[in-house]
Amino acid sequence: MRIVPINEVLGLGSGETVPAVKGTIKQVFDQNKGTNSHGDWKLQNIVLTDSAGEIKVKIADRDPIPGNWKGKLVCIECNDGGKGMTGIKAKDDEYRGKVTRILSVTPTAHITLVDANGGQAQQTQQPPVQQQSQPPAQTQQASANQTAPANPPATNGNGSAVSAAATQRSRDYYRVMSAVQTMRQGWDKEHPQALMTDAHFQAACSTVFIQLQRDGVINGH
Length: 221
Known about the structure:
This protein is of the alpha+beta class.
């Protein structure tokens, strides 16, 4: 997986996925904990540096980075699963009216100490990832009808054409979900008394995906 230099991260758009970063931990802050309408939460900040720059990293809902990791080299890497790469994004963070670029790290990412020879030394524990609720069967069927190609490509014996098409479609839908999730976070922040439900989120994803197909941004054939 490509390791992105910090100066490149600083130039990405807010919400863009970062495959991996590597750097030295310059500072480790104490982890904060609390409870809100979504349940228990944990948040810890560290500062990461490399030869190209420096960036704050916000690490959510994980075991804390120990203080003795200060000055050590770490690799923070996305998890590349069935829904694409998850776990690290470039984000704009506002504090007292000032907006700065940070890295947002969630439980699916891998955080690993790197030894002097570049090998893995130690990996932080990760809390179990909760399975997202599945949309109702009716919604699943409607989505399938809207996105399935009218004339599926011919396949060879091992179905490689179907596999390739499904992989591309999954990546397109992952990007749509990522964009809608950013919108959801903004909505929830501005409307704490009317948080977006999972059903509304799923409907928004389907609406955006379908519109992008109609606009020709996503190939529907």
